[in-house]
Amino acid sequence: MKKLIITLGILFSTICCFAQKPVNPNASEEARDLLNYIYSLDGKILSGQHSYNESPDEFYDLAYNITGKYPSILGTDFYWNGKTDPGPRTVQAAIENHKKGAIITLMWHVGRPGDDPPYGWSTSVQNEFNDKKWQELMEPGTKIHIKWLEQVDNLASHLIELQKAGVPVLWRPYHEMNGVWFWWGNNPEGYKKLWKMLYDRLTNYHKLNNLIWVWNANAPRDIPFDEAYDYLDFYPGADYVDVLATDVYHYDYEQKDYESLLELADGKPIALGEVGELPKTNILEKQPKWSWFMVWSNWLTTANSKERVKEIYNFSKTINRDGIKN
Description:
Layout: H1 2-19, H2 29-39, E1 45-46, E2 48-50, H3 58-67, E3 73-77, H4 87-99, E4 103-108, H5 121-125, H6 131-137, H7 143-164, E5 169-173, H8 188-205, E6 211-218, E7 243-248, H9 255-265, E8 270-275, H10 281-286, E9 290-295, H11 299-302, H12 306-313, E10 318-319
Parallel strand pairs: 1-10, 2-3, 3-4, 4-5, 5-6, 6-7, 7-8, 8-9
Helix pairs in contact: 4-7
Signal peptide: 1-19
Pfam families: Glyco_hydro_26
Keywords: Glycosidase, Hydrolase, Signal
């Protein structure tokens, strides 16, 4: 019996440790520590706030002004929509806020491969990407594939600066892929290949080991011409994803969607990558596995009263920046 107990203990320990390993076997110590911390939350939830990259502290600071507490997570974007590449500004904000104790999450509203920056919202980020273009994207040597490599390599030049500074990143590229509004979201099989291509280029070619890979879908919905399809259709697989997240706007915290994402995650952490209206505390009691929430920029005040913001920041299970365990 004693031998059996010891054997089971070793097996349980092995399973737990395996579950917490980053998908990148060469992940940095900082990335491993952050992922382990997320696994350890045990019903607690990290607060988070997004700001546009032209003013990456704006709404993060506003959350503090409302609540007297800084969010645990600062989010911003590599979206290139102006005359100059926003990468250096995004990197600077990430490093400065990391030094202050914030966890950093970054995203990438990137234009279609083949288009040149700056990327127009409707003319590029949300423009058509047909089957022929998808096929060209997947074929090395084509014009679109070469332009895609240029996009990724430029992005990598900024992420490398964060790696040098010891900043781990909750990295959530090509988000809301199960919706119909972004160029990368209209082809499930193409999308899964695209995700793996990006993972390979950043991880194996550029040796970026500071990234925690966050696959960030949208809450499913069947609104005509604004659909978001099942999570499973676009999931690239457990070998390429550290955390599964979803975006919830208009207070659409459906229990069935929560449970569906939990099932797909199969032991990996789940998160609210973007929210509009903050979840009420009774929702979080029923959905205790969310690792973090991040309010989208100005929705902090346009979709939430100050009382609602204070309520969630003062919730007993919310961890704000001053409560992060180092």
